[in-house]
Design goal:
about 140 residues; Collagenase (Catalytic Domain); four-stranded mixed sheet; 5 helices
């Protein structure tokens, strides 16, 4: 079974961490990543903004950032695929705007971040299809 570590830098709502861990593990198992690990860090807008500024040169908060521990496209997948950082502040705003639960937004962002760790990007409408598929699927698990 896949291993998912959820590290809260900002206190998440009760029950979010176990649901996130279970759903992301199941998604990884479905994607045949059962022997891999991912770390999800739940943070604030302030922290994710610092990361985005340091790594992308953009001074703005965002919802999710992915940091792979390998070069995507390399045929060798390491045991730990990387880190997915999720801003709970932005996730809460987006959940409110879209009229759904914070937990659903965080799960969607975790799936999105995992898809990035696997080397995918969303530069075209066709590329978005994979993101939408994993984001929809994680909510079903």
């Amino acid at each position: 079974m896949a291993r998912v570590e959820v590290v809260p830098q900002k206190r998440p709502p009760r029950g979010l961490r176990p649901r996130l861990r279970r759903a992301l593990q199941r998604l990884m198992d479905e994607l045949e990543l059962g022997d891999r690990e991912v770390t999800v860090i739940l943070c604030s807008d302030r922290r994710i903004r610092e990361l985005k500024r340091a790594h992308w040169g953009e001074d703005a908060a965002t919802d999710v950032l992915s940091f792979p521990t390998y070069e995507p496209g390399d045929p060798f997948l390491p045991p730990h695929l990387g880190d997915v950082w999720i801003s709970l502040d932005t996730a809460q705003r987006q959940a409110r705007e879209q009229g759904h639960a914070l937990e659903d937004e965080v799960l969607t962002l975790a799936a999105h971040g995992l898809w990035h760790l696997l080397g995918h990007d969303h530069t075209t409408e066709e590329a978005w299809r994979g993101f939408r598929n994993v984001q929809r699927r994680i909510l079903e698990l």
